[in-house]
Amino acid sequence: IVGTEHHLYKVLSSIQMLLFKNALFKRVFSWLGMNAAVRAVVRMGIYVGAKVYFIREGYQGMVDGGEENIKEASWESVSSMLQMGGTVIGSARCKEFRSHEGRLKAAHNLVQRGITNLCVIGGDGSLTGANLFREEWSGLLEELVQQGLIDEDAVQKYSALHIVGMVGSIDNDFCGTDMTIGTDSALHRIIEVVDAIMTTAQSHQRTFVLEVMGRHCGYLALVSALACGADWVLIPEMPPEDGWEEKMCQKLSATRSRGSRLNIIIVAEGAIDRHGKAITGSVVKDLVVRCLGFDTRVTILGHVQRGGTPSAFDRILASRMGVEAVIALLETTANTPACVVSLCGNQAVRLPLMECVQMTQEVQKAMDEKKFEEAVKLRGRYSDITNHCILVMVCLLFPFSLQSNFNIAVLNVGAPAAGMNAAVRSAVRVGISEGHKMFAVNDGFEGFYKGQIKEIKWADVGGWTGQGGSLLGTKRLLYQHHLITKTPGSGSALQAYLGLMELLEARGKYDEFCVPMVMVPATVSNNVPGSDLSIGADTALNAITDTCDRIKQSASGTKRRVFIIETMGGYCGYLASVGGLAAGADAAYIYEEPFDIRDLQSNVEHLTEKMKGAIQRGLVLRNENSNENYTTDFIYQLYSEEGRGVFDCRKNVLGHMQQGGAPSPFDRNFGTKISAKAMLWLTKKMNETFRQGRVFANTEDTCCLLGMRRRALVFQPVVQLKDETDFVHRIPKEQWWLKLRPLMKILAKYKTSYDVSDSGQLEHVVRNIRPKESDASGAM
Q: What pLDDT band is residue 570 in, cutting at 50, 70 and 90?
């Protein structure tokens, strides 16, 4: 039975699962962790028929035992947790668990409740402790028998302890995963502070030194510096060369001489120089005041970075990881090594826990021995990201004196999306650093044919990173009589894509278009073929999530209320579905998953049953074009009528607020990195196609879209994407996020099947991955 459990679980329908789960899945889980992940583990565990327990106060609660510390969880006990920061079940360091006697007490407390599966969230120390506990388990049970605390039957029944880890760390310092739970929220806190500080710095012509967390890892400092357009950054992995003080002061002075009224310096708390001497915020401040005389202030963010409301990214990541952790425990055997659930690109993966821990410890050892380049390489995939970020930082901060014969134009097309300005800034500055002359086209293709083109210089894009909208201007229209034809039914998200195809076709008629062309996806709808993610989508998700949180909070004094929320997206249901997962929605209506009146009635009945229990609020999202007949007004009236006497309804159309506001840290950095990569690709293609005194590029692989595909950024010829596109409804024919919809339904307590065929499989940690690039594809 154990050997076939995985295959049975794949194919069971909802009815079959109800029949089989008591026989196959009578397992028990407990949990150490944070709220979105706690919620996902609890509800997925209950969904598969397991008993789920909270262990309060971390390992301390496991050692102390008792009803207060180890308590069975219910479905309702994790309601209204998604928007809460920290962890509602508590977390604490436990010296006693480090001793053999402490682990013996913990084993006894688990056996008393029949717990043989642990989901643990923490850093390398917590996960190392969990693995040691697992390895000692059989010996601990024998000791308990000898002491007369348990019998031989218990040893046989609870012979193995299974462990699955999830990494919770704002430092993002764990090898094996691209992002740890909590990192994105910490970046949000940092950027909120930086954006606020920049206004006062601008007013008073001040220099601000911000010290952020990161004792051994500079991820927060580096990425936040990219996101806010800082003038200088200091991180532990890359100690500055001797003489850095003079170089930094020269850079700050040069920034002021170009008209800037402020300077921002980001310092990681673990930053050191080449001799191991600490570089603190105060040290940097004293240096600036002494050498430049600038009015300088220091802000130490401290534990502000650990608090606040979780970002949409962290909620989705934690929910996915929590469900994946339960599935991993369902599939584990006595011979399966303890694993950690990780994120690689856009995919969930499982890695052997101790391989990741050992790699993380090797990084720290290399840092202690001042082998900094080795430490960066040991981070594996993260080292690629780090090196790329550093490359971008260098390009963005230092205008080199290189010269080329190439001119490059940048334009925004379609509706505005947060992060566009960061992408333009990156393109302009990387282009200038490569020696090119950069031009800006105002108002998209309309400005292109009207000749609204002007040279744009380094200083012209200063301060653009944190601004929303499109400072270059953008238009949705493509003009029929000026080469670009207007495609019926085409929406803003595909304008750049369609325009690029028109320009490609026009090469046969106009040699001027025989130049390399590249598109980076930027739309809140996230509906560009060839890319799993688009610039602007994360900001829109956060806007939806924040609004839903506030709307639900508005009903805190009102019992039994359901909110109907309409989101943007055209025919693409990404915002409604993924926003629903992040906000804890009960249902999300989208075009890609057709629904009828029976589905609506079923949802009403589900909410009616829910309102009779402890849960008093409901949330339903609807994509704006999900159905031409079942409109938001129709659904609101249906719910109001059918729920009469049980709950009342309210509706809200979010509208263009999803396109506005300051870009999220993710969109700022995604836009910066993807544009930098696009510019380097353009430079390479122009050099390859330069002949007889001009660039002549007329092959398909010189007109590409750069998009995120699963685990990599890939250049794809636009002609190859035609077959992947539904042009009528302006969406890709296959969309990865549709696999997340059953997850949202399960966490909302619907009886549905969940296909685990795409779940993470156990892989191994690979050191220093360096994917090869071809002309048509280049992976990062």
A: very high
Annotation marks residue 171 as catalytic: yes
Residue with the two structure tokens 């996960």: 127
User: What DSSP string runs through 440-499?
Assistant: EETTHHHHHHHT-EEE--GGGGTT-TT--S-TT-------TTBSB---TT--GGGHHHHH
For 737, other C-beta atoms within 10 Å of its C-beta total 19
Domains and CATH numbers, the chain: 16-180+310-376 (3.40.50.450), 183-306 (3.40.50.460), 399-535+663-748 (3.40.50.450), 538-659 (3.40.50.460)
Q: What is the edge-to-edge ordering of all strands in the sheet holding 517-519?
A: 517-519, 703-709, 712-717
Q: Of 64, 124, 171, 443, which residue is the catalytic one?
A: 171
User: Within its chain, how far is the Cα of 205 from the centroid?
Assistant: 34
CA–CA distance, 385 with 175 (Å, rounded to integer): 12
The tally of CA atoms less than 13 A away on the side-chain side of residue 519 is: 32
Torsion-angle region of residue 536: left (phi > 0), alpha (psi -120 to 50) or beta?
Answer: left
Phi, psi at 611, each rounded to 5°? -70, -20
- Cβ burial 295-312 (10 Å sphere, 16+ → b, else e): ebebbebeebbeeebbbb
Looking at the chain, the number of H-run helices and the number of E-run strands are 24, 25
Q: How many residues does the chain have?
A: 780
Q: Cα(352)–Cα(176) distance, rounded to whole angstroms?
A: 9
Question: Considering only CA atoms, which of 222, 216, 273, 215 is closest in space to residue 245?
Answer: 273
Structure tokens at 400: 């080199």
Question: What are the tens digits of pLDDT across the range 659-684?
Answer: 888 999 999 999 999 999 999 999 99
Q: Across residues 591-609, what is the average pLDDT?
A: 94
Question: Would the pLDDT of 509 be above 70?
Answer: yes
SS3 (DSSP) at 757: coil
Please, what is the average pLDDT of the chain? 86
Question: How confident is the model over 145-177, as pLDDT tens digits?
Answer: 999 999 999 999 999 999 999 998 888 988 888
